[in-house]
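fyi for ur records
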Amino acid sequence: MWFENLFGFTEQSPEQVRKNFLLEGTQLTSLANNKTFDCGTLEIPSLEGLRLRAAAIAHKSTERTTLTQVVSNVQKLHAAAENRRAMFQVASQFNLLEMAAPDAVPEQGVGIYEHDNTQGPACAIAAGGGTGGCT
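which gave:
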Protein backbone atom coordinates (compact mmCIF):
# COMPACT_ATOMS: atom_id res chain seq x y z
CA MET A 1 0.00 0.00 0.00
CA TRP A 2 3.03 2.29 -0.09
CA PHE A 3 2.01 3.72 -3.47
CA GLU A 4 -1.54 4.48 -2.35
CA ASN A 5 -0.34 5.99 0.93
CA LEU A 6 2.17 8.23 -0.83
CA PHE A 7 0.21 9.32 -3.89
CA GLY A 8 -3.42 8.93 -2.81
CA PHE A 9 -4.65 6.55 -5.51
CA THR A 10 -4.41 2.92 -6.58
CA GLU A 11 -2.54 1.89 -9.70
CA GLN A 12 -4.86 0.49 -12.35
CA SER A 13 -2.90 0.94 -15.58
CA PRO A 14 0.13 2.92 -16.75
CA GLU A 15 -2.18 5.37 -18.56
CA GLN A 16 -4.34 5.91 -15.46
CA VAL A 17 -1.24 6.49 -13.32
CA ARG A 18 0.15 9.08 -15.75
CA LYS A 19 -3.22 10.89 -15.78
CA ASN A 20 -3.01 11.24 -11.99
CA PHE A 21 0.37 12.99 -12.07
CA LEU A 22 1.53 16.41 -13.16
CA LEU A 23 5.27 16.67 -13.85
CA GLU A 24 6.81 20.15 -14.01
CA GLY A 25 10.59 20.02 -14.23
CA THR A 26 11.64 17.84 -11.32
CA GLN A 27 8.42 18.43 -9.36
CA LEU A 28 5.92 15.58 -9.46
CA THR A 29 2.44 16.37 -8.13
CA SER A 30 -0.19 13.76 -7.41
CA LEU A 31 -3.50 15.13 -8.65
CA ALA A 32 -5.26 12.73 -6.26
CA ASN A 33 -3.90 14.21 -3.02
CA ASN A 34 -2.16 17.39 -4.24
CA LYS A 35 1.17 16.33 -2.69
CA THR A 36 4.32 17.39 -4.53
CA PHE A 37 7.59 15.45 -4.61
CA ASP A 38 11.02 16.30 -5.95
CA CYS A 39 11.70 13.41 -8.28
CA GLY A 40 15.03 14.56 -9.70
CA THR A 41 16.20 13.66 -13.17
CA LEU A 42 17.26 10.34 -14.61
CA GLU A 43 20.73 10.09 -16.08
CA ILE A 44 22.41 6.97 -17.40
CA PRO A 45 26.02 8.04 -17.95
CA SER A 46 28.74 5.78 -19.25
CA LEU A 47 31.60 4.79 -16.95
CA GLU A 48 33.88 7.13 -18.88
CA GLY A 49 31.36 9.94 -18.45
CA LEU A 50 31.27 9.33 -14.70
CA ARG A 51 35.06 9.41 -14.52
CA LEU A 52 35.21 12.71 -16.39
CA ARG A 53 32.56 14.32 -14.20
CA ALA A 54 34.22 13.07 -11.01
CA ALA A 55 37.59 14.41 -12.11
CA ALA A 56 36.06 17.80 -12.96
CA ILE A 57 34.58 18.26 -9.47
CA ALA A 58 37.12 16.41 -7.32
CA HIS A 59 39.18 19.52 -6.60
CA LYS A 60 36.14 21.69 -5.75
CA SER A 61 35.01 19.89 -2.60
CA THR A 62 36.45 20.33 0.85
CA GLU A 63 34.45 17.37 2.14
CA ARG A 64 35.93 13.92 2.00
CA THR A 65 33.91 11.28 0.23
CA THR A 66 33.80 7.96 2.01
CA LEU A 67 32.94 4.60 0.57
CA THR A 68 31.68 1.87 2.84
CA GLN A 69 30.63 -1.66 1.99
CA VAL A 70 28.08 -3.07 4.39
CA VAL A 71 25.84 -6.09 4.56
CA SER A 72 22.63 -4.80 6.08
CA ASN A 73 18.94 -4.19 5.66
CA VAL A 74 18.84 -1.30 3.19
CA GLN A 75 15.48 -0.11 4.56
CA LYS A 76 17.11 0.49 7.96
CA LEU A 77 20.04 2.25 6.28
CA HIS A 78 17.66 4.63 4.48
CA ALA A 79 15.90 5.44 7.76
CA ALA A 80 19.09 6.14 9.74
CA ALA A 81 19.66 9.86 10.39
CA GLU A 82 23.41 9.52 9.88
CA ASN A 83 22.77 8.48 6.27
CA ARG A 84 21.06 11.76 5.34
CA ARG A 85 22.29 12.80 1.88
CA ALA A 86 23.89 9.38 1.39
CA MET A 87 23.88 7.56 -1.91
CA PHE A 88 23.18 3.85 -1.97
CA GLN A 89 24.35 1.46 -4.64
CA VAL A 90 22.47 -1.81 -4.45
CA ALA A 91 21.83 -4.85 -6.56
CA SER A 92 19.12 -4.07 -9.06
CA GLN A 93 17.90 -4.99 -12.51
CA PHE A 94 19.32 -3.25 -15.56
CA ASN A 95 16.03 -2.04 -17.05
CA LEU A 96 15.18 0.45 -14.25
CA LEU A 97 12.30 -1.77 -13.14
CA GLU A 98 12.05 -4.15 -10.21
CA MET A 99 10.03 -7.28 -10.76
CA ALA A 100 8.83 -9.07 -7.63
CA ALA A 101 8.41 -12.41 -9.41
CA PRO A 102 9.41 -14.07 -12.71
CA ASP A 103 5.88 -13.63 -14.05
CA ALA A 104 5.55 -9.97 -13.01
CA VAL A 105 5.24 -7.40 -15.79
CA PRO A 106 5.70 -3.60 -15.77
CA GLU A 107 1.98 -3.06 -16.34
CA GLN A 108 1.37 -4.34 -12.80
CA GLY A 109 2.89 -1.11 -11.53
CA VAL A 110 5.31 -0.32 -8.75
CA GLY A 111 2.95 -0.99 -5.85
CA ILE A 112 4.00 -4.65 -6.03
CA TYR A 113 7.46 -3.64 -4.79
CA GLU A 114 6.29 -3.82 -1.18
CA HIS A 115 6.04 -7.60 -1.54
CA ASP A 116 9.71 -7.90 -2.58
CA ASN A 117 12.20 -7.57 0.27
CA THR A 118 15.27 -7.32 -1.95
CA GLN A 119 17.45 -4.23 -2.23
CA GLY A 120 16.20 -2.72 -5.48
CA PRO A 121 12.52 -2.48 -4.57
CA ALA A 122 13.37 -1.27 -1.05
CA CYS A 123 15.38 1.60 -2.52
CA ALA A 124 12.67 2.34 -5.08
CA ILE A 125 10.15 2.72 -2.25
CA ALA A 126 12.56 4.91 -0.26
CA ALA A 127 12.77 7.19 -3.31
CA GLY A 128 9.02 7.03 -3.90
CA GLY A 129 8.68 10.36 -5.69
CA GLY A 130 11.12 9.30 -8.38
CA THR A 131 9.72 5.79 -8.58
CA GLY A 132 6.11 6.96 -8.94
CA GLY A 133 7.14 9.42 -11.62
CA CYS A 134 8.67 6.63 -13.66
CA THR A 135 5.45 4.64 -13.81
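The first helix runs from residue 2 to 7. thats all i got for now
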